[in-house]
């Protein structure tokens, strides 16, 4: 557990430093620049397709980092890399500000696995040194904007599960200090599925 705590502290510090230097974007300008994004993520950032993430209400700093990671290749995605290739830092900040200003629509989680997921989310798994998800993502799933931790409450369960498995396999590796990879490699498929379902209705 001490190792996980140290990793969390290190990750929070590094994220706070990096995010503090980011310029705040112009949401109004971002709305116009996000026109192409709407076909996959919805006009207001609430995507209709479960495999495409909802961007509405996401922390601007987190969104900016993901867009920069797509552009640099730190987060591989042929589709997203092509979409962001021509974006400037100002464009990225503006688009992120626009989606952050929108309100996410919260779905309804299925009852199956709720108690298991709630326990992991709120308390973690001590015997496996798995920290509580709420420590970084907040009890309501709104994340931590200052530290750059994602808002995950209300996200499509299918998309969340895909990302958790990508972290576990190492396919996605743009998490600070390998924190998400460390946690997910200790969780089973049923636990990841339960968490993804639980988060879809969390607010």
From TrEMBL:
Protein name: Cytochrome c4
Record PANTHER family: CBB3-TYPE CYTOCHROME C OXIDASE SUBUNIT FIXP, CYTOCHROME C4
Gene Ontology CC annotations of this record: periplasmic space
Modification note: Binds 2 heme c groups covalently per subunit.
Residue positions binding heme c 1: 37, 40-41, 80
Domain of life where this protein originates: Bacteria
Record keywords: Electron transport, Heme, Iron, Metal-binding, Periplasm, Signal, Transport
UniProt domain Cytochrome c: residue ranges: 25-103, 112-203
Presence of keyword Ribosomal protein: no
Organism: SAR86 cluster bacterium
């Amino acid at each position: 557990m001490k190792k996980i705590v140290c990793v969390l502290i290190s990750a929070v510090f590094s994220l706070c430093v990096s995010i503090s230097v980011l310029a705040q974007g112009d949401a109004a300008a971002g709305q116009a620049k996000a026109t192409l994004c709407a076909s996959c993520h919805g006009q207001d950032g609430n995507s209709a397709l479960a495999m495409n993430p909802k961007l509405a209400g996401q922390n601007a700093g987190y969104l900016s980092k993901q867009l920069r990671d797509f552009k640099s290749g730190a987060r591989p995605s042929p589709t997203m890399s092509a979409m962001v290739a021509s974006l400037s830092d100002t464009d990225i900040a503006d688009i992120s500000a626009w989606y952050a200003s929108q309100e996410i629509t919260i779905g309804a989680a299925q009852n199956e696995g709720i108690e298991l997921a709630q326990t992991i989310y709120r308390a973690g798994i001590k015997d496996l040194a798995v920290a509580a998800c709420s420590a970084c993502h907040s009890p309501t799933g709104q994340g931590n904007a200052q530290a750059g931790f994602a808002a995950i409450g209300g996200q499509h369960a299918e998309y969340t599960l895909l990302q958790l498995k990508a972290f576990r396999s190492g396919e996605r590796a743009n998490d600070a200090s390998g924190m998400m990879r460390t946690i997910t490699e200790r969780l089973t498929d049923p636990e990841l599925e339960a968490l993804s379902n639980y988060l879809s209705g969390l607010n």
